[in-house]
TrEMBL record, chains A, B:
Zinc finger (C4-type) in chain: 44-59
Keywords attached to this entry: DNA damage, DNA recombination, DNA repair, Metal-binding, Zinc, Zinc-finger
Pfam families, A to Z: RecR_C, Toprim_4
GO terms assigned for molecular function: DNA binding; zinc ion binding
InterPro entries reported in the protein's UniProt record: DNA_Rcmb_RecR, Rcmb_RecR, TOPRIM_dom, TOPRIM_RecR
Name of the protein in question: Recombination protein RecR
Function in brief: May play a role in DNA repair. It seems to be involved in an RecBC-independent recombinational process of DNA repair. It may act with RecF and RecO.
Length: 185, 185
């Protein structure tokens, strides 16, 4: 239990003791659920999202075949996009970002799959929703290069002031990006 | 001392005691500095920035007369822009934002001054660097309306993912804004 992210040895002990005390109403159902998830959870063969079937719910939904693919780093980012409920197309989960330091190359990620999806499916736009970190942006440029001659429009999320953001609390990089990308009112 | 922002009664007592203990090396110089600032600090007649002369350092610098005015809410925002060292023009400090609730109208702010500056000085672009809050954006729209027929281009800071930002930690509004303002790679 202590190996879970966010749980140290002490909180793991507390959690385990709590589970044992409430073994009927908490421990058994949790064990059942974990067993079920271990049996059924699998990666979507198309996009890499997690689901219970070969194709995830998003890929299987015919209403989302609108020719847009949103490329995200991880399933947690896909969930963040879904929480915002603003994107109506399908996703492609890379499973990480390129990193020379950690020895992660294009083959370790799901980049070749992405390129073949763009060729096979009727895709008009690839939206790179990668994190605004150095590795994320490197990966974005690599993918943009790969897709350059495929006749598909490649876009990325806007960078700038977050909603509710106050200038005084922003870092210099964000202010610079927001000023450089300023747009007519 | 306890009336200063960020200082409660307890930390004010600690600070005062510290000052009294070090009265030679800390209290007297601080008292002198505060006295000097009280005597000399004044608002720039042009932009509202704080300086020691009628015109602040930014307005007095001829190299910054490049026809761009950056409109900010407060002097702290002007300092944030200067820290980023990316804007080379002059500023206009509103001194607040429009707020029906607090009874702040255009006359309480420095909006009429801004309009007359745009007419008088050789201004080509007004950049609205207001906070991405509701009041800030209301004020931005009001100013854009006021400047509509003056032949000046009105722009605002880009909204989107802040630099270093990870999707998983962003709010829905920012993800929506970033997706809607996405741009070609």
């Amino acid at each position: 239990m202590a190996k879970l992210p966010g749980l140290g040895p002490r909180s793991a002990r507390r959690a385990v003791l709590h589970l044992i005390k409430k073994r009927d109403i908490l421990l058994s159902p949790l064990a059942d659920s974990l067993f079920t998830v271990a049996q059924t959870a699998r990666e979507c063969v198309t996009c890499g999202n997690i689901g219970t079937m070969d194709q995830c719910d998003v890929c299987a939904d015919p209403r989302r075949a609108i020719g847009q693919i949103c490329v995200v780093e991880d399933v947690s980012d896909l969930w963040a996009m879904e929480r915002a409920a603003v994107f109506k197309g399908r996703y492609h989960v890379l499973g990480g970002v390129l990193s020379a330091l950690d020895g992660v190359g294009p083959e370790e990620l799901r980049i070749p799959n992405l390129v073949s999806r763009v060729g096979d499916e009727n895709i008009t736009e690839v939206i790179l929703a990668l994190n605004a970190t150095v590795d994320g942006q490197t990966t974005a440029h690599y993918i943009a290069d790969q897709l350059e001659d495929m006749g598909v429009s490649v876009t990325s999320l806007a960078q700038g002031v977050p909603i509710g953001g106050e200038l005084d609390y922003l870092d210099d990089g964000t202010i610079t990006a927001a000023l450089n990308a300023r747009k007519a009112v």
